[in-house]
Design goal:
By secondary structure, this protein is of the alpha/beta class. The protein has helices at about 45-55, 80-85, 90-100, 120-130, 135-150, 165-180, 195-215, 225-230, and strands spanning about 5-10, 10-15, 20-25, 30, 35-40, 65-70, 80, 105, 185-190, 215-220, 235-245, 250-255. The chain has eight helices and twelve strands. Strand 9, helix 7 and strand 10 form a beta-alpha-beta unit.
Amino acid sequence: MSDFIFKIQSVRKSYMDRTKTQSILFESFSLERAKISVLKGETGIGKTTLLNMLGLMDDIAFQDEENIIFFPISDKPFHYRDIFCTSFLNKEKALETIRKNYFGFMFQHDHLIDGWTGWENIILPYLIRFPKMPPSKAIKEAQNLIESCQFNDMLHIMNRSPATYSGGQRQRTALIRAIIHKPKVIFADEPFASVPKRRAKRIIDVLKEQARKNGVTTIMVAHDTHDEILNHSDISIHSLSEYQNSNHIKIVSVKKGK
């Protein structure tokens, strides 16, 4: 089994900038399994772009020897290059399979559905992965997870719409939704944007527990304002920087916490 869950081989991402096409080249690097890996760098450097590429949320036009390789524990590696170079139907099937079985997502904006209850929001990815599971059992699974994460104060609001929740309550609901279906990788884009420091620390503690107990890898975009809670031996910091103003992005592991 590889010690790495992702290996990136000089991947380029193109995008439209006003009237012309620009591209960013992310140089080769790897991400460790069962760790929290934090992507940091200046605004606009490409942190969220890279996160979306790894999470199969963006199309990628691979060139030459470019590739992203995802290494699940028990299955053969997935080569993103092969996925995006196949027919449309095969590509869509592969994307759906990987995302529902292996990935969980926490977005900068929580994307909770206010027309649903908290329970309904949380159990959605669980029912997508395990479609034969009765919703009542999925809710019981969600309740057990909430209690194990020490979010017991959330239980009494789960029958209500997230529109009635505070920012911290919404983000904790999004966290439970991201991990309930037992993913191998959690992608988190600025998950502390709307939560106080003590709640942010608890989110980190939950993600560390997921890594230790279940081998879950978290790949996160975060800002310098959260350096204090990210300074831990279970957390790797990866700094993105532009190389000689050339749109070549170097990713360097600058530190591991103490």
